[in-house]
Design a protein that fits this description.
The complex is a heterodimer of chains A (570) and B (133).
Chain A (H helix, E strand, L loop, with lengths): L6 H4 L4 H16 L24 H4 L61 H8 L8 H5 L9 H10 L5 H11 L10 H14 L7 E2 H9 L5 H11 L6 E2 L1 H15 L14 H9 L23 H9 L3 H17 L3 H19 L9 H16 L17 H22 L12 H14 L7 H17 L5 H12 L11 H4 L17 H52 L1
Antiparallel strand pairs in A: 1-2
Chain B lengths: L18 H22 L6 H4 E4 L6 E7 L5 E7 L7 H20 L12 H14 L1
Antiparallel strand pairs in B: 1-2, 2-3
Helix pairs in contact in B: 3-4
The chains are: A mainly alpha (570), B alpha+beta (133).
Chain lengths: 570, 133
């Protein structure tokens, strides 16, 4: 196998050779002959003795290269090397593994399944190809005092003694179906926090620049890259790293060592506010996309739309889209409130970053933006591009809802143009549903951030209401139009005026806390909203068309009249 | 952007045909800068005086200077045809440059005296230059 995969020829196990070799092992174990062609078959994962629940569990698919993840349960620190049945020892004792959890530098296509791990050893495999595959799993425990990364090793020895980490790794991998290399997993976060503690006992204090410099220099990245990482992660440019900044920097270091290019700007998931909130409440369901990273080698294929958006402008609207898409996912997570709080700040940070690192002057804005963003995320399940929600005062519920409507309709017109919704019948939804939705929407329309579940409902039903009760509710419309006029809605396009004043919101109604039924309600509301959105958008465009035609006719008639008039006079 | 010892830490110009001429001008204007600095003498240098103003109007362009407390000098050459540029704008541009420079200094990996490779600084300078053009 060694010969077939090319290692003998090349002289070492590079990642390619390693993967081929693993495939061949699997082939051999399944009874296929050991040849290059056999790796094209669908193979079960190679089985290695004394390796726990690793490959079979996670990687049952026959990719070109399997990202094999070996789990190092920390409880098994004392375990020794595994045995390979078929071939020679491919362990690499030369590469003193440092990381408690390693995964080989996943080839781009497989990264989707391999969350980024601490991987110092893994990192080194990227750097020191001589040592081939990072089978540090078993060796890490015994070679912690390895030569090169001695310091890192010592630290990891200290920190890898948490026995629950193996379980969390398992869980984490299954959770991270939406993969994002710039997202910090739980174990990673714990690890970083421990590292932070080793440098600075107080978690709320800063790590000074020189201390951080020494620490990161140990990672053996070139100084310009470290400089760039610092630039990215020190958001407030104070020369010191908070815990969140430190986590971000550490994560970037890890990513870089694993072969990922450093992004030009800090990805959303690494922004300090996000990390801070996330540190408090782990949010594994967050699917915030990395809109900024340099073309990560194919690791984000499921997020094509984010790619296109990134390529198109990469600026604020795209950020908002991605953010809100992520926010939508967050919504489904349980910790809605914190995400809502965080994401607006993140959004603001994105804009800050793209605007070349001005200070946090925009911080005031996003906070009020959260309300609109949640509504948008509800409507934007399919990953469309919502327009930037304007900041909104939290007290004015009706305004908020009408703002939602504006955005919704803009989205919907976009949706119609993009054609992702099936052409709905032009008939308006029946009236009773309007009154029906009015009740819960009024109830729910309280854009207060400390009541996110109701907020979600409010948004969804507000939209629903808007969407459903179009022309019939004229008095309501007029009322809301006056309200809408006073709003600071930069996106109030004239076409939307009709519908912008729709939701008859009575802000003074009490909020019902139906936390138990909220999710269901939200989802049904979302569906209904979408349908209604599509209907109304189509209707809108049709009406526009009609309007244009009528205009033309009118002009034609007027010209005719002009021509005829002199005739009649005469 | 010149350092303490008057060697350039950072030079950037909008691509034109005679870029070298700008470089030359910038270097020669250093003399004027030094002259102004020494003229301040023992007076305490405060923010106002950091801006050196119009150093050297020639036939085609104007040169503006700005020095920081640590004797790091910023020199800017602008086209004379760009008469829309007022003094305040120049000042604000220098202020932005100074801020970006301090941000760079915050980076512990940056040694004072190195050439500046910071991407953030690059983007900021580029955006400024685009604004002016």
């Amino acid at each position: 196998i060694t010969e077939v995969c090319g290692a003998k020829r090349v002289g070492y196990f590079g990642p390619a050779q390693f993967y081929i070799a693993l495939k061949l092992i699997a082939a051999a174990q399944s009874g296929f002959p050991v040849r290059i062609e056999s790796i094209k078959n669908e193979l079960p994962l190679p089985r290695f003795m004394a390796l726990k629940n690793d490959t079979e569990v996670r990687y049952g698919t026959p990719a070109e290269f399997h990202g094999v993840k070996f789990q190092v349960p920390h409880a098994t620190l004392e375990k020794n090397s595994y045995k390979r049945t078929d071939e020679g020892d491919k362990q690499e004792p030369k590469s003193p593994p440092m990381s408690p959890i390693c995964s080989p530098p996943a080839s781009p296509s497989t990264y989707q399944r391999v969350p980024l791990s601490y991987g110092y050893g893994k990192a080194r495999s990227g750097l020191e190809q001589q040592h081939g595959a990072p089978y540090e799993v078993r060796h890490s425990t015994h070679q912690q005092d390895g030569p090169s990364s001695g310091n890192y090793g010592a630290k990891s020895a200290l920190t890898c003694s948490t026995p629950n980490r193996s379980l969390s790794v398992e869980r984490e991998q299954q959770d991270s179906s939406l993969d994002d290399p710039w997202r910090i997993t739980e174990e990673q976060r714990d690890y970083y926090i421990n590292q932070f503690r080793s440098l600075q006992p107080d978690l709320n204090a800063f790590i000074s620049g020189s201390v951080a410099k020494n620490f990161f220099t140990k990672s053996k990245l070139p100084i310009p890259e470290l400089s760039h990482i610092w630039e990215l992660s020190d958001v407030d440019c104070d020369g010191a790293l908070t815990l969140a900044e430190f986590c971000a920097a550490f994560h970037l270091v890890v990513a870089r060592k694993n072969g990922y290019q450093l992004p030009e700007t800090l990805p959303e998931t690494l922004l300090p506010e996000y990390l801070q909130a996330a540190c408090l409440k782990p949010m594994r369901d967050c699917a915030l996309f990395d809109s900024y990273s340099e073309p990560l080698p194919g690791s984000q294929q499921p997020r094509d739309f984010s790619r296109t958006e990134k390529s198109s402008a990469g600026e604020v609207p795209d950020n908002s889209a991605l953010l809100q898409d992520g926010k939508k996912d967050d919504k489904q997570a349980l910790k809605v409130s914190t995400t809502l709080k965080m994401i607006p700040k993140e959004f603001q940070h994105l804009t800050v970053k793209t605007a070349a690192q001005e200070s946090n002057a925009l911080r005031a804005r996003p906070r009020s933006r959260s309300y609109s963003s949640t509504s948008i995320e509800d409507a934007m399940k399919k990953g469309e591009e919502p327009p930037t929600p304007p900041p909104r005062p939290q007290k004015s519920h009706s305004r908020a809802s009408s703002l939602d409507l504006n955005k919704i309709f803009q989205q919907n017109t976009q949706a119609v143009r993009s054609g992702w919704l099936p052409p709905p019948p032009p008939a308006l939804p029946p009236r009773p549903s309007v009154s029906q939705t009015e009740q819960p929407s009024e109830v729910e329309l309280h854009p207060q951030m400390n009541r996110p579940p109701s907020q979600a409902e409010e948004n969804s039903s507000a939209k629903k209401e808007v969407v459903l009760s179009q022309p019939p509710s004229k008095p309501a419309r007029r009322k809301l139009r006056t309200e809408a006029q006073g709003l600071e809605t930069p996106e109030l396009s004239p076409t939307i005026n009709v519908t912008s004043s729709l939701p008859a919101v009575k802000p003074h109604l009490p909020v019902q806390k139906q936390s138990s039924k909220q999710k269901r309600a939200i989802q049904t509301a979302i569906r209904k909203n979408k349908e209604a959105n599509a209907v109304l958008a189509r209707l809108n465009s049709e009406l526009q068309q009609q309007l244009k035609e009528v205009h033309k006719e009118r002009i034609a008639l007027e010209t005719q009249l002009e021509q005829l008039r002199p005739v009649t006079v005469l | 952007l010149f350092s303490l010892q008057n060697y350039p830490l950072y030079i950037r110009s909008v691509p034109t045909e005679n870029e070298l001429k700008f470089h030359y001008t910038v270097h020669t204007s250093l003399d004027v800068v030094d002259e102004k600095i020494s003229a301040m003498g023992k007076a305490l240098v405060d923010q106002r005086e950091l801006y050196l103003g119009l150093l050297y109007p020639t036939e085609d362009y104007k040169v503006y200077g700005y020095v920081t407390n640590s004797k790091v000098k910023f020199v800017m050459v602008v086209d004379s045809s760009n008469t829309a540029l007022r003094d305040n704008e120049i000042r604000s541009m220098f202020r932005k440059l100074h801020n970006s420079y301090t941000d760079i200094m915050c980076n512990p990996f940056y040694n004072p005296g190195d050439r500046i490779h910071s991407r953030a600084f690059d983007t900021m300078v580029n955006s400024m230059m685009m604004q002016m053009c």
